[in-house]
């Protein structure tokens, strides 16, 4: 069985399987962070974990849980978490996994963007924590939930009041999905303005909330194109723009109807080519 928890201040959901070993009868379940999250040991962003039991009361967790990075406690902890991006070939591993422990490989990037020493870690982990829905611990980049505020009503000509068609904000210009080539073809049939490292448009201050708000207030459609075409892979590119009055256009390997309501997005995969998408 599992419990689902929403991350504070983020449109994210984590589905957590419950530990079933003998530690359940103990006073505390302890999670050990073997790697940092990029350059930070404890963070409430993506990794979710702050030291001690600071993380868990805000999720109304029914168990007494604690997080540590104290290696003297390694042999007694219930779970050991390894962040994929920090898992380099020269990372020193614990001597062995205790029979009662869950060793968790955690990462939410697409596999093509991850290089791991697979031979070194084969058979090492008994849980995974990724965006895949078949992970032991699925971690979505976002989720749709019932709101508490009234929905703002629009006139039927709401989009017609905007004077620009399509916008794309992007920093990775060469990707496994080849989205850049799709956009190049799309531009032959509809106006597409590109902001960021891969385009000629600039919005200042870069990556600020105001910058995004100003851009998305002007355009009708936003290209939420993923860098990889992978099962279940839907990132913040899609979820973030749902907060604005703009229609996201997706390109990815996910069944988007599992992530958002019908009519809240346009899926480029539903059209045979960029021209048909532009016409729609």
TrEMBL record:
Q: Does the keyword Cytoplasm apply?
A: no
Q: For this protein, what is the EC number? A: 2.4.1.-
Enzymatic class = transferase
Q: What is its main location?
A: Golgi
This protein's source sits in the domain of life called Eukaryota
Q: Which InterPro entries match?
A: Glyco_tran_10_C, Glyco_tran_10_N, Glyco_trans_10, GT10-like_C_sf
Name of this chain's protein:
Fucosyltransferase
Tell me the organism. Limulus polyphemus (Atlantic horseshoe crab)
